[in-house]
Amino acid sequence: MKKYFGDLKYVLPLYILLLITFTLTWAHQGHIIIDSGREIYYPERILNGSILYKDLFNIYGPFSYLYNALLFKVFSVKLSTIYLSGIITATAIITMIYLLSRLFFEKLMSFSITILSIVIGCFSFYIFNYIFPYSYGMTYGLLACLISLYFLIFFLRNNQSQNFYLSTFFAGIAISNKYEFLPYCLIFIFLAFKNKLSLKINITAFITFIIMPVLCFGILFYQGLTITDLYHNFKDIYNMTQTATLRFFYIISGLIFQKPTLGILIRNFIKDLIPISLIFCGIHYFSKYKIKATIALLLGIFFTFKGLSVETFIFLPLLLIILACICCKNKTEEINIFSITALLMSLKVFWATTLNSYGLFFIPILIIALINYAKKEWHKTIIIYLLCLTLGFAFLNYKERTYKKIPITSNRGIIYEHSEYKTTAQELVNYILNNTKQEDKILILPEGLFFNFLTNRKSDDYYNSYLPLYIETFGENRLINSIKKNNPQYIFIHNFPTSNYYFKSICKDYGFEICEYINSEYRPKNLLLKDFTVYVFEKK
Asked: DSSP of 408-444, one letter per residue?
């Protein structure tokens, strides 16, 4: 470890920057309506006896929800518990990015990659970040994957089987969080055949791989989950994958290749290539042509800042494939394996490595893989370019933070949101706390589990989202029957746009039968009309 932490002048600033980042981002990440509510509501419900895949519809692995439920039990059911868990996870992810890059590069290059990772991953204020993400399964799974890859590289270097076992163990943790990490596990099968590993090593590796999935699902079966429950949940997941609304969401998120995609990739590649080339010329020819080289360097830095966008890194997976195919014969086995694993990890986001989507989580590992194919003489240029990107995105992200200044509070914690929520969101929390009983069931349409958590009110556990995607998955009749069965005392319907799933507003563009049923069985109680509209309905 001395090799990696011997030079404190690089490592210490990273952790100081992390500390500053955590201070600035505290309670400013996540979203009061989108996704984040599920990540705090589910662990709380597990503590109260609800079972994943049986009572709680779940499209992800079980680890993150079980782990966060344990944190709630050991500490307290507060937002601060989740925030601290996110901080620890983010610190570990950043540490692993530094350690992985140090396997291949000098300290300054590793510092540059890592500091950029801090800015885009930790100092990000949307639901795609390392601290309070859209899914803790993603960050826990990503951390496990990075640790797994770290031990895998050591196995390739020294052929010690314990490194292979540790690698497969953490890969098992990764898939226990998010099934998207399953393609990464193909690398173990590849290595088993390529390196002709013994039967004993393969069996032991398989056992270590399944330890965490078996443990997680073993806990669920002990709690009362049945094979039938699991079958019905995964059948619903399959039905979801067949919906038109999910396909629409994937298209607008860039996850599905479309005709304009190639043009976007080429345009952003050129936008990055121009400043990198100018910076390289400025450095390479400085001794001969000081004035011209200085101008080129300054222009390169200018165009770096000018070209910043969420799509800056969108071409990374495709470029990595091209370079890996061209250069693989001249590179070591560990570099080639690292590139393959980086691609397998990021397979879902191949066409969408953007900062406002799932691709954000895989950008650092793709950057490390790509730099492995750069000549040594380009390293200075790359370092300057990465540092310029860091400064640029730090400024843009800080600007975003200034918009998230409205506190929404309850006795369970605080979250800061944009000014568009400044009155209605807090009014909704206060209304629920002051006008409902703790034992009342509260259903918020189309989604709003964050409010259920803040007010300690139960929702419908299985059918807790009425987004167009979920309505198409379950069907309106099934959801109406669920309302009849669970009999919530209050239903709140808000007009937060759901256009990412094609239809913009519930009761106006979709969900007509559900809304008709609510109108027939519930009476209008109140109307919260400030920043966004919330209709309050009480059971007749």
From this structure: EEETTEEEEEEGGGTTHHHHHHHHHHHHS-TTSBEEE
